[in-house]
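pasting for ref
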Amino acid sequence: MTTDLKSKSKDRLYSLDTLRGFDMFWIIGGGALIGALSKATGWGWVEVLAHQMHHVPWEGFHFEDLIFPLFMFISGVAIPFALTSRLEKGTEKSVLIRKVFKRMVLLVLFGFIYNGALRDGFSNMRYPSVLSQIGIAYFFAALIVINTHTLKARIFWLIGILGGIAMFQFLIPVPGFGAGVFTPEGSINAWIDQHFLPGKLIYGTYDPEGVLCIVSATSVTLMGSFAGFILRNKEFAQSKKTIMLLTSGMILVLLALILSPVYPIIKNIWTVPFNILTAGISFLLIATFYYIIDVKKWRGWIFFFQVIGLNSITIYLGVRIIDFWHASEFLLGWLANPIGDFGKVVIVIGVITLEWLLLYYLYKKKIFLRV
């Protein structure tokens, strides 16, 4: 964790910070804003968008299901810039391994805080968290990158992770259910979580950030590192990088759709087609953002998202700890209360504004929570 850092290095991609901020925007209020607009207006196209702002109950895919894996993919994109560049400058592997291990530990601890450890203690606490999964998956993806030297070796690791998850989910029988069962009660994920994961499981029989989910999600972070290597390669022209990213994304999305009739897309247990689909969409998004922002240099709109993206962990924890909703009601209730359903739109806009102003203050003071 470091403070008072420069927000950019010479190798930093504007598109990467912007995409990270775009992703985090939906967590801190973007989804709620679409939902409030849908209720207030009744417009069909807004209702369609609002429907996408909710996780599917089990099998299937909505935009909301992309937000978490996209963040993991983005953390993988940063690996070549943060770690490989230092290896090339002579930094010892052991130094980098200690660095990513420290990052993992900090994110696991932040995850405990997010889950209420400081409020409720550790008795019957939920130990898994979004932050811990990001940290652990990043650690193992980084280990693979640090200790391999070729794309071929990293692809073997990726195939090994995805193949291993597929074998667990398809071939290992769960007592009372059998093998290849994809239900909340009968999946191998649920059995492993019930027997090896301490504390409370958020959904009773399994946890969407459970043991097998973390291993599976490492593949998304590792695929993000592949995108990072493309973007960092100075031998590729910008147009070639864009085409490579787009092509990779389309192939992965097509592969996931081909697999899905026999191997369902399920976010809650991070099935292989879910990983492949979200990585594919993430490739398409980073390609689009890269082309618009870093190739064409159309940057007049990006500052709002950059401010969020540069302090993404801060605001993720912040919205858990600080009651921005109450503050918005306190400041804007006079305007929101008389206008019915549109009042919630006003309050949500106020929440997003307060969150952004806090991040803007940190940005101006050059205070960034980095792990």
